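Worked example 4.2. Below are the chains of a multi-component assembly; read each line carefully before continuing.
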Amino acid sequence: MSLDVIDKSLETFVLNLGPQHPATHGVLRVKLTMDGEYIVHAEPVLGYIHRMHEKMGENRTWAQFMPNTGRLDYLAALSYNHGYALAAERAEGIEVPERAEYIRCITVELNRIASHLLWFGAFVLDLGGFTPLLYAFDDREQILDLLESVTGARLTFCYFRFGGVYNDIDDNFITGSREFIKRLRSRMPMYHDLVSKNIILIKRLKDIGPISQEMCRRYGATGPVLRGSGVNFDVRKHEPYSVYPEFDFDIPVYTEGDSMARYMVRMDEMEQSMRIIEQGLAKLPEGPVMAAKAPKILKPAKGDYYAAVEAARGSFGIRLVSDGTNTPYRLKLRSPTFSNLSLFSEACRGMILPDALALMGTLDLVIPEIDR
Amino acid sequence: MTNELIRLIAFLVGIIAFAAGNAAYLVWVERKVAGHIQRRIGPKEVGPYGLLQPLADGVKLMSKQLLVPDGVDPILFKVAPLMVLVPAVMSFVTIPFGEHLAARNVDLGLLMIFAFASVNVLGLLIGSWGSANKYAVMAAARVISQNIAYEIPMLLTAIALVMATNTMNLNEMVSLQAGGFWQWNLIKLTFTASPLTPIAFLIFFTTMLAETNRAPFDMAEAESELVAGSFTEYSGMGFGVFFMGEYANIVIGAALTTCLFLGGWQSPLPFLPNGVVWFLIKMYAIIFTVVWIRWTFPRTQFYALLNLSWKVLIPISLVNLIVTAGWLKVF
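Applying the procedure described above to all two chains together yields the following structure tokens:
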């Protein structure tokens, strides 16, 4: 097969994938060294949408940074709201009323489903199937309508406050959510019949793009990527926060580690999120949605605070260092897709281009969250 | 002499109008069908049901600048779109639309269409190579290997059919399928036709999809991998001509399938009159299927595509060829 090549660089060429490329979903650039259709080396180049969110955090009051968190991962913004609210509440020592905690979980899970639906559509689009995208968007639209009615936004949410949520949910939201779950339950078999069981899709995903547990550990990959490699880790279960311990749900884990496993993890997670929402709506207690004694201006005591949440793409961590003033001294964001992307370079070595792009699709990249 | 001249001009104009009209309106059909498959409406703003959309698209493409980037081979870059369109239009010459409605009744019509179909690939290669773009060159490499792989089973199934019918003249081939749909080559259960023709039809249809670079085999324009494949550097009418060529090729593929397997202009029931209407109905039914497939399936992986041809389609079509030969010898 391979000839004896003295200078390998004469046999390869550099392919510039992005920053404008249909498969990179945004402004990611990957410098690929190719040997024909095979990838010899891949180097992701970041920074095209760097907005200095961390530095911005140091120059704003604690509350003013909340809208920024909705602009990291714009597809699952509520998880990031949640992470920041948790960290700040931990720093200030604010107790959140139970109703607010339930509302947080319900809306975050709805947002997770919306994010996974969009990923599903966009991923099949990467594989050349156009139609599922429109069906997934149709379902996602229902979620956005629901969330819009309580949060006032459709994409870059800023719904959580230190000590609760901004707005109580009403009966319309509750009945709407129940109807949506019924609707999505009836549509999931269709997605599985038309997409998951499609022979072409199976051939493109099965045994392609293996990512081992060991590789996940080395790069710090989390979320569906990690669970697709057989590691049962979910922040909601293993480092519980909010009222997640109250819910009965499973963590879908697949041991194959190939693209199909990561695909199936996300498809199953939608089902689990629906279970959480159903239980949350059933158990929803009465009461206030804002802590009565929450201070208007936060001035947490000197110290180092950390909170992690399970966002749609993995574990999102936020570290706050307070020096006792009304702005954070240091604000560090640990975004899941950054770690997930870093393993791409190693995982795609020796693969052909279409398979590598399928692998990249299963990592579910959102570029503004990588660059921050 | 003058009659011949008038005939020539009439068919020349007719064929070009047919090819261009089809290319323009198949885009509309494609968008409309895609829209309905995806629970949308599709084009609806320009004219009733968006019927004037192709006109608007045409004006847009023609008014755009034909950008020739630095570093391209200017001659190859400009010749390539024509190399795709012209052979496709030429192939229409021998297609029998009706009993007496063919520009030229060529005795080796089938062979002629296959010959022109091969030139189409050359056009894609020249365009990709001339545009000096890495994505385009990768697409060209794929298209060449794909077309070589799929031309073989396509020809093998066609040869089996030619053995059974004893003719390469498309009009004659259609004439032999007279007398109702059970006489069509697709399901002709007589001793003069091979029992494997339904399988041959499936193979032919699959290879036709691959030859015309349609989904799920659209390697030339795999937009989520290769940006726009061979067409990456083309803008304006350069791109438009490429596109017309692609659609003309689909029409040729569908017309050829109709003639070979579905009885061309023959009516499906003996008491109904024959005519060009039947030909068009069958042809557009096949085109609709092609569009339907595109908006339903994801793209195959490139190596799976080649494996399908070399490991499945070619052996089966060889078996089909041998069985047909044996069958004809025995009966």
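Take a moment to check your reading of the output against the notes. The CA atoms of residues 246 and 333 of chain A lie 28 Å apart. Chain A has a mean pLDDT of 87.
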